[in-house]
Amino acid sequence: MKKHLSISPSLIALFAMGAANAEANRTTLPVPRPPFDGKIAENIVDSRPSTPSPVEAPAGAPNIFLMMADDVGFAMSSTFGGPVPTPNMDRLAAAGERYNRFHTTGICSPSRAALLTGRNHHASGVGYLSDGSVNYPGYGGRILPETATIAQVLRLNGYNTAMFGKHHNAPGNERSEAGPFDAWPTGLGFEYFYGFPAGDSDQYSPILYRGTNRVEDDTTHTSLLDGRLADDIIRWVHNQKAAAPEKPFLVYFAPGSTHAPHQAPPEYIARFKGKFDQGWDKLRKETWHRQLAEGIIPKGTRLTSRPAEIPAWTSLTPAQKAFAARTMEVAAAQLVYQDEQLGRVMDELHRMGQSNNTLFVVVQGDNGASGEAGPKGTINELRSILGHDENEQWMLANTDKLGGSMTYESYPVGWAWAMNTPLRWVKQYASMLGGIRNGMIMSWHGHVAHPGGICAQFGHLVDIAPTVLDAARLPAPDTVYGVHQKPMDGQSLLASLTACDPDHPRTQYFEIGGKVGLYKDGWFLSGEDGRPSWEDMPSAGPRPPIEWTLYDLSKDYSQATDLSKKEPARLKEMRAIWRREAERNNVFPLDHRFAMARTLGGPPAGPGRKNYDFWGKDISLPATHGPIPIGRSFRLDADLRLDSGTSSGVVMAIGSRFGGWSLYLDHGHPVFTWARSTDPAEMATIRSDQLLPQGASTLTLRFAVPAPMKPAEVILSADGREVARGALPGSILVPSGNGETLDTGRDLGVPVTDYATPQGALQGDIAHLSIRFD
């Protein structure tokens, strides 16, 4: 008797599902559902369900691991000839290919928008930092619906998508629980997000979010931020592959290092003791020689000269040299720590058997190394940016504390310049290669013709999204959720893994903060406005003259020789092309102001609003987009319910010890602490000798500013009776760092001062707190 082969309905459905996915129109996302092919009758017995047709990624589509570091210059890591050993990036490069003519936009938010969308940053709506968004088409500070991210495209094509780290593409006023959240990673196609939505983060006490929900500080963590991010990547991949082992993933790792604050474990810093005592001038020459010897840069590349605005190392005093050398030791240690976290993730993917089917793309920096701390450096990044009038003696006194939790440091511009060897200038300079050229590594097992090779083909962040789609064999969509999409500006670099083409024709414009550039087929146009990256405005005012220069990068890798006088016709043609590209991409109007001038240029508390009411002791708002009780007179009334007559804890705090103030109780005593920085000359504490009683009471803070920019007077009252009064050294400060918040009933992130309770948790309740501006 013959046995008949029986094929189950579920297996038939799987075959049909595969065929349906193969024929799906993926240029319209979400992929349209196929017509119902089942049968519906009155009774389930006579009915047949439709064939299941979930959207799946194309067969063989790889996992995608995408990483972009922060403020890492072209020449910082050993992978590109730099002085900092990065063995894990080195081994990724040994299996893949290094790109030595890869480019970014010149500053944080625009680079991230270009990377995620495959469109030019102005075309995607992020022409400058998202913190300073304005209502011009190219400067809204949020990625536009018509420029869907690679995460959204992959998710709608059957991938799982997750992001870890820095997301600097949500406007500052959209970072509270009121949202909106469509500019957050989970609104841009990432199914999972663990990180921070601001421009920087303290590495010891980060303010983190999972999805759009604040992660309460976990005192059990002993690792710095990058370690926590790597932990969570590994945890997420474990869970993703447990639930859907055949489903490919996109992991986007965006560490906040080596952006300020430069912080690292002390044992890492100790490895570099004395390694940078020779100074930036000599280090730059050492790096240049090493890059030439290793073939990182072409033979004959000139080492560009030091700009006059950057001091010679020999001009520094011994104390200044010791301080500066230590800042570089810390920055190097931070990059080493970051590299180790990358290595942990790579090792785990290898252990899981996932690395061979993963396309790795690692961009070493979202712009050139940062010179925003100026010639002297800083121990307090935002405090420095606002005025650059830090007390140098106090800075030098903190030399041994650099890299720890009590400094928010960044190195002098001389080191940033050296980290961009052999190129000109630093971050923000879209007119100079030092601001826009970064190292990139791409690796995909079995797809690299010459592992360990160096490719000189022009590349840009806008090329990454097309490259990923090419690897996944997916088209760029025409519509996403009914929104017609702008075409991608980038070009796939996937073919360069097998055949690098240095002469590939290409045109790409650049613009950041009024500094402009244009690359066209080996030539580079530079339009420079003269503003140093650590200053707000050039002396000429809002319409500074632009100096136009021209370079043949096919023969002049480092942009060393200006040919504008020899090539006037080409100069004119390049300027015309730049204007055409600027108009096409919504670059105008040019704004030459620096970030802080743009961000702080508006009214301190929003247009017309003077009254704020908070109900409870667990309020948390972005520090620079809430009431902003700084620089003008106001009254704060807090209706308290205290557990005892010796209760401790925060009533309200804003910012941190690097810039902030706190009204709190210390064993029943009302206290106000002001900290423009950690410098004792810029701090003040006003304390009452009297105690607040157990139960109900009203604590009042009067912050009186007699005239604009004048020092404030603080008056504390309990139940209508004055209990303390004192003068502050000023009335203006910048809540620091970028992700710090205004909190009631506690002080999250980096605290303003030390408290008697963990995180300043109030031993009691706040029934109501009001702020009334004069």
UniProtKB/TrEMBL annotation:
Cross-referenced InterPro entries: Alkaline_phosphatase_core_sf (IPR017850), Sulfatase (IPR050738), Sulfatase_CS (IPR024607), Sulfatase_N (IPR000917)
Statement: the UniProt record of this protein carries the keyword Ribonucleoprotein: no
Signal peptide: 1-22
Record key words, sorted: Calcium, Hydrolase, Metal-binding, Signal
CDD domains assigned: PAS_like
Pfam families: Sulfatase
Keyword presence, Hydrolase: yes
A GO term, aspect molecular function: metal ion binding
Boundaries of every Sulfatase N-terminal domain copy: 62-472
Family affiliation: Belongs to the sulfatase family.
Name of the molecule in the record: Arylsulfatase
